Amino acid sequence: MRTNHPLAHEPLMLDRYARAAHLAPTPYSGGRRHPIDVGLARGQSSGPS
Question: Is the pTM of this model over 0.70?
């Protein structure tokens, strides 16, 4: 992420990530969910938070 991004000022913890506005450049199709959404729904994180 760019150094002047609003979320770059302190560690990006799961709760800050979840509260942030997100951009979806491609539409979701049908009932398919993005793997990040699936992981967040399960309460999991696959990297530094």
Answer: no
For the chain, 49 residues long, give each residue's pLDDT as a single digit of tens. 888 988 889 998 888 888 888 766 665 556 677 777 778 788 765 555 4
Place of tokens 């539409």: 27
Cα separation, 19 vs 16, in Å, equals: 5
CB atoms within 10 A of CB 15: 9
* Distance, CA of 18 to CA of 31 (rounded, Å): 21
Phi/psi zone of residue 43: left (φ > 0), alpha (ψ -120 to 50 degrees), beta? left
Backbone angles phi, psi at 8, to 5 degrees: -85, -5
